[in-house]
Write a structure and sequence with these properties.
The protein is built from 10 helices and 15 strands. The chain is an alpha+beta fold. Helix content is 28%, strand content 25%. It starts with a helix and ends in a 7-residue tail after the last strand. Strand 3 and strand 4 form a beta hairpin. The chain has a single domain, classed as Ribonuclease Z/Hydroxyacylglutathione hydrolase-like (Metallo-beta-lactamase, Chain A, 4-Layer Sandwich), CATH 3.60.15.10.
Length: 319
């Protein structure tokens, strides 16, 4: 074989078989996360955090008493900028005898970046038909929109529970008629989400502080809404407080718990409840979780002068 034949064969081989360290066609970016669930053990109970997705939150516009420059500084310190991508979390508590879901996500009441609770519930190994009870922290649409799947009950075997004061307010046609135009959709979302369960005899409101199933109790934290509720889960000496919307933006409100939201029903009461919850969690050292803390939203608080430090849960493989 002549030199020219050998050269031709080498060139043909080089074209047919790319070199391992050569340039390859770029792989398409997926731009999605793994299924959004995270598990932890709380005594003998299993708690699964479920992501419903994230919303872009215009932070400087939602606070009623915060200096915009201060908010910008706090966000920058946390390597954040507006709008802040904000988690929407729900929590599944398996007591061994009951499956209890705390909040139900947005369903189709918001845009395409949320509404993934059912998919993540199934990815976590559960089916919606298995849920025994659903406890709603309050009747804002990002906490109960997922109760319905189109015109069907998303959780056909579940009993839905919430504080009677929230039910009396948000399910009232008279209150909706009297509300400003830009607030009416919140009432409509509550009615469309809770109404079918009530019609089926599956909505059972409660009054204030009460144990709902062994190990899970409701504790009134009214202010953000008239019947806003914290759910406290306890098992074998371990405690988890599920705060709902006692707070929204960690970078701002852990630094200054007095910062309140414009859409709190009672800003003074909401601020009192938030300060009380922060102080108690830091003093006693129990677990806390909140609907809008970065997913999975579970951790502890440490007091630092007049502010708090958020310590997220250390990852556990649950072996």
């Amino acid at each position: 074989m002549t030199f020219h034949h050998r050269l031709a064969l080498c060139l043909a081989f080089a074209v047919a078989v790319p070199w391992s360290n050569g340039v390859r066609a770029g792989a398409p970016q997926l731009k999605t996360q793994a299924p959004g669930y995270y598990r932890m053990m709380l005594g003998d109970f299993e708690v699964t955090a479920l992501s419903d997705g994230t919303l872009a939150l215009p932070v400087s516009k939602i606070f009623g008493n915060a200096n915009p420059a201060t908010v910008e500084k706090l966000l920058k310190y946390a390597y954040l900028k507006e709008p802040v991508e904000t988690s929407v979390n729900a929590y599944l508590v398996n007591t061994g005898s009951k499956l209890v879901l705390i909040d139900a996500g947005t369903g189709k009441l918001f845009g395409p970046t949320v509404g993934f609770l059912l998919a993540n519930l199934q990815a976590a190994g559960y089916q919606p038909e298995q849920i025994d009870e659903i406890y709603i922290t309050h009747m804002h649409p990002d906490h109960l929109g997922g109760l319905m799947s189109d015109d069907q009950l998303a959780f056909p075997n579940a009993i839905v529970r919430a504080d009677q004061r929230d039910a009396d307010f948000w399910l009232s046609q008279a209150h909706m008629d009297a509300a400003p135009e830009d607030k009416k959709s919140t009432f409509e979302g509550a009615m469309k989400s809770i109404g079918p369960y009530a019609a089926a005899g599956k909505f059972k409101p409660f009054a204030g502080d009460t144990e709902l199933v062994p190990g899970v109790r409701a504790m009134s934290s009214a202010g953000h809404t008239p019947g806003h509720t914290t759910y406290v889960v306890e098992s074998n000496g371990q405690k988890l407080a599920l705060w709902g919307d006692l707070m929204h933006v960690a970078a701002v409100q852990f630094a200054d718990p007095s910062v309140y939201l414009k859409f709190d029903t009672d800003t003074n009461a909401a601020t009192i409840q938030r300060k009380k919850a922060f102080a108690d969690a830091a003093r006693q050292g129990y677990w806390v979780a909140a609907a809008h803390l970065p997913f999975p939203g579970i951790g502890h608080l440490r007091a630092r002068a007049s502010s708090y430090v958020w310590i997220p849960a250390n990852y556990s493989a649950l072996r």
